[in-house]
Write a structure and sequence with these properties.
5-stranded antiparallel beta sheet; alpha+beta; elongated; 5 helices; 4-stranded antiparallel beta sheet; Alpha-Beta Plaits; Ribosomal Protein S5, domain 2
């Protein structure tokens, strides 16, 4: 990734279709945040296409490049999942899932034909969904007295932080996601405020 403060992803699902010698390939793209969302989407597609011959997929999550998975789902090894992942990587996307459903048309396409078909279907689906650039965010928890709510929210809004959760009592707790490129500024401002405790949150993988 060229800019570590931002990453490219998609916000909306899309679908595209590719046909070759009677076989139909329907590609679905989804934005996903974790593997549980991947499992939900795959289950939905299998339910929607119970008679399909194959449900092949690839996804890439997170920014370190190591969290990905490919499946040929019964197609010859390397002929489906890898070409799909290749399309995600060619656009340098992350937190993206592509599932390609195949209905067999009676004619064998051979490995080169399959690679071409899965690659093309995935590429077509990515062409119809806009790529968005999102800031890399770091999660922090805040604790502060209720009387400081306005001051805290001012910093949160000024620095484009996202409020993930909040508990409002006399003593407040708030989880926020801080854009990585504003992190120093945010920490400086909060550490400068009396009575605000800010801690980095390590999220469970």
């Amino acid at each position: 990734m060229s800019d570590p403060d931002y990453f490219n992803t998609i916000e909306k699902p899309s679908v595209a279709e590719f046909k070759d010698r009677g076989s139909k390939f329907i590609a679905y793209t989804f934005p996903i945040a974790d593997t549980s969302q991947f499992k939900e989407r795959l289950a939905e597609i299998k339910k929607e296409h119970p008679k399909a011959t194959h449900h092949c997929f690839a996804y890439r999550l997170d920014l370190d490049g190591n969290n990905y998975r490919v499946s040929d789902d019964g197609e010859p090894s390397g002929s489906a999942g890898r070409p799909i992942l290749g399309q995600i990587d060619s656009k340098q996307l992350t937190n993206v899932l592509i599932i390609v459903v195949r209905y067999f048309g009676g004619t064998l396409l051979g490995v080169p034909g399959l690679i071409h078909a899965y690659k093309t279907a995935a590429s077509l689906a990515l062409q119809v969904t806009p790529v968005v650039q999102k800031p890399v965010e770091v999660n922090y928890s805040l604790q502060f007295d209720y009387t400081m709510m306005n001051d805290v929210m001012t910093i949160v809004k000024q620095c484009n932080c996202t409020v993930l959760s909040q508990e409002m009592q006399l003593f407040c707790r708030m989880s926020i996601a801080v854009p990585k490129n504003r992190l120093e500024e945010v920490l400086y401002k909060f550490k400068d405020m009396q009575g605000v405790v800010i801690e980095n949150v390590k999220l469970p993988l």
